[in-house]
Automatic annotation (TrEMBL):
InterPro entries for this protein: 6-blade_b-propeller_TolB-like, Glc/Sorbosone_DH, Quinoprot_gluc/sorb_DH_b-prop
Domain Glucose/Sorbosone dehydrogenase residues, every copy: 70-362
Family matches, as PANTHER family: HEDGEHOG-INTERACTING PROTEIN, HIPL1 PROTEIN
Organism listed in the record: Alteribacter lacisalsi
Domain of life: Bacteria
Gene3D superfamilies: TolB, C-terminal domain
Protein name per the record: Quinoprotein glucose dehydrogenase
SUPFAM superfamilies in UniProt: Soluble quinoprotein glucose dehydrogenase
Length: 379
């Protein structure tokens, strides 16, 4: 089922360097706002942001609902024109080019625990998926002692279901909140996994566990010989709840939820300590990294990231928008909103795709939520 809606988007630039008391609250040099003129003209023909007398600061964005009634979707994966969307309760929604959905259960040795922010989260397809149907997923589970953990496993699609075929890493600290969960295969061919602090902030500074970190491993779960710490999966640490990762020109970027506000975009370098819970925002401490940009006293609740036409884009949950990061200007711009909470964004090079997260208990769902949306950017 496909549906088109009409939106008119106008954005402006303003300086957001100071709070009301004059104190500098972030290093975002440019922030774009949606001007008074987001007009919902009904779900009839198409969804557009029309150009006017705004020069290069305005784009036409056409959005189209590809599939709807998804159940708390979390991650977009796609291969050979078919989408595979993880749903937090332990299903993978397979969506064909017509928008038809086939839900298939994921059967793991440790039952998927969908509690709070946990459940079936990140997913990447193996390069030879077309031959063997294998993918890698990140999911939450309950350990024998009753504690909440996360694990990274390989699964194989066969006869209408996905079954676990191997464990890459388990006993990653978890909780009802701050599980991280994003998986990406980097340009070096290794698997990267973002983990949260499991609601135990001090664990992010402890390299003896895997909480509050970005992990790096082979696709078979081995520790690469050039990881920054000997015999350790940890690539970077001192993170609170990283939710997205991407690379542009071999530079790695990550989104991270801040405490109430001060959400972060970080440039990730091996072995670096990103400060949580010792520092956040503009605070500094020797041996700790400050973010490339952060949201100051506002919040984006940034999530999945992608590259589109050489641009870094990331999803916003609390911000209910899709944003662009300009790493040179250290600027953030709003490029799309009107669909509610956005959990993940993905690009095939021609189009952008986003999934909403309005049914996760923190949104304001409308009929048809949640959705897979295709965005076309006409400049």
């Amino acid at each position: 089922m496909m549906k088109k809606c009409s939106f008119f988007i106008d954005w402006r630039v303003f300086n957001n360097d100071k709070s009301s008391n004059g104190r500098q609250i972030n290093r975002v040099k440019v922030t774009m706002i949606l001007a008074a003129g987001l007009f919902l003209s009904g779900c009839e023909s198409e969804e557009t942001g029309e150009q006017g007398d705004g020069g290069d600061s305005r784009e036409e964005i056409t959005g189209e609902t590809i599939a709807e009634n998804l159940d708390v979707p979390w991650n977009i994966a796609q291969t050979n024109g078919t989408f595979y969307i993880t749903e937090r309760d332990g299903m993978i929604a397979e969506i064909d080019s017509a928008g038809d959905i086939q839900r298939e259960p994921v059967k793991t040795e440790e039952a998927i625990l969908s509690r709070g922010e946990g459940g079936l989260l990140g997913m990447v397809m193996k390069e030879d998926f077309a031959d063997n149907g294998e993918a890698i997923v990140y999911h939450t589970y309950e350990a024998e002692d009753g504690s909440i953990m996360n694990r990274i496993v390989t699964v194989q699609k066969e006869e209408g279901e996905w079954s676990e075929t191997g464990v890459l890493l388990d006993e990653i600290p978890g909780a009802a909140i701050h599980n991280g969960g994003r998986l990406e295969i980097g340009p070096d061919g290794y698997l990267y996994a973002a983990t949260g602090d499991a609601d135990e902030p001090d664990w992010s500074q402890n390299r003896d566990n895997h909480a509050g970190a970005i992990l790096r491993m082979t696709l078979d779960g081995e520790i690469p010989g050039d990881n920054p710490f000997p015999d350790s999966y940890i690539y970077s640490y001192g993170h609170r709840n990283p939710q997205g990762m991407t690379w542009l020109d071999d530079v790695m970027y990550s989104t991270e939820h801040g405490p109430v506000a001060q959400d972060e975009i970080n440039v990730i370098e091996p072995g670096r300590n990103y400060g949580w819970p010792v520092i956040s925002g503009d605070e500094t401490e020797e041996g700790m990294e400050t973010p490339l940009v952060h949201s100051g006293q506002d919040t984006w609740a940034p999530s999945g990231m992608t590259i589109f036409e050489g641009r870094i884009l990331f999803a916003g949950l609390r911000g209910e928008a899709l944003y662009e990061l300009d790493p040179e200007e250290e600027g953030i711009s709003l490029v799309y909103d009107g669909a509610g909470r956005i959990r993940d964004v993905w690009s095939d090079g021609e189009y952008l795709y986003a999934i909403t997260s309005n049914t996760d208990g923190r949104g304001d769902p409308v009929e048809g939520d949640d959705r897979l949306i295709r965005l076309t950017v006409n400049q």
